[in-house]
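Trying the structure run again after the queue cleared.
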Amino acid sequence: MRTSKLNLMRGAVSALAASVVAVVALPAAAMADDNYYKTCGDSNVICQTGVTAGLVEGECKTTSAALASTSVCVDYSGDNVYVRDGKADGYAAMAYVWSADGVEIRYCRNNQGYGTWVKCNFNWVEATDHTVGGGWKVSSTAMELEQLWTWYGK
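Done. Tokens:
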């Protein structure tokens, strides 16, 4: 009888250890979110999560309040995009740059929260048409974005 109780206890401890290992082995939310939008794996799309930005440079515009008052700046000389989250709503602020040549779409995500700025560094063909927009990410399959401005050759 004593042996069967001991075996039962060993089995329970083994099962507990296995469940702890399984929980630890799951990726953290941040790691699981590397491909944060449905088209990020496409060859004509680049998706970046921005890094905290200190000095913001370039031409800047802000989306409407309906699109979370997201501010987007483009530093043409460095091919940098800056994104500010303008609304405390729990959603990531987004910017995009569309180009007629090379990689077609570049997304820059600010998932650091309201009032923060992030920077994404891209490389685009200067001598072509570009469109810049901003807004917010609803889910991995939907974003609400509006066009802010266009440029050529900068």
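Confidence is low (pLDDT under 50) at residues 2-32. Worth checking whether this holds up in the mutant runs.
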